[in-house]
Amino acid sequence: MFSKSRINEPGPKQASASDTTPTAPEAQKPASGMAAPATAPKAKPPASMLSADLVVKGNMKSTGDIVVEGTIEGDIRAHMLTVGESATVKGEVVADDVVVNGRIIGRLRGLKVRLTATARVEGDIVHKTIAIESGAHFEGSVQRQEDPLSNSGGKKPMQLPGGNSAPTEKN
């Protein structure tokens, strides 16, 4: 009643016009009238690279990743920022994840901050988690906050109802 199928038996396979295996260009085409599945994951875009010979004067903002090897004179806001060994950033840095291999002169705010052995930071660091490797140079203050990316972490004078600033020092 049942016989063994010959499909799985080894042997020479002859190409014929009845082969149903599509070629590479045909395999990439969606079925007629059907759109590509919306659940396909998006590929993460590559990081924006700023090479060592580049000097930028002005602020930078990105929702992606930035790798700096040159000189930036201005504030940087990004998802992830990597400051290369030859890089210098003069301004405020705000990012979810910051890796400093080079030099930052200014305030640094990040959820996760890492200063490598070649890092040089002159300024205050506000973080949720921080790692400082042996050999890193740091001059400034370190403050842990649950949400270091919010602007409320700054040390600004408190405003009084009349619009005047509260005195910061007593004489």
From TrEMBL:
Residues 1-47, 137-171 are annotated as: Disordered. InterPro entries: BacA/B (IPR007607). Residues 29-47 have a biased composition (Low complexity). Signal peptide: none annotated. It comes from the Bacteria. Belongs to the bactofilin family. This is Polymer-forming cytoskeletal protein. It comes from Sinisalibacter lacisalsi. The lineage of its organism: Bacteria, Pseudomonadati, Pseudomonadota, Alphaproteobacteria, Rhodobacterales.
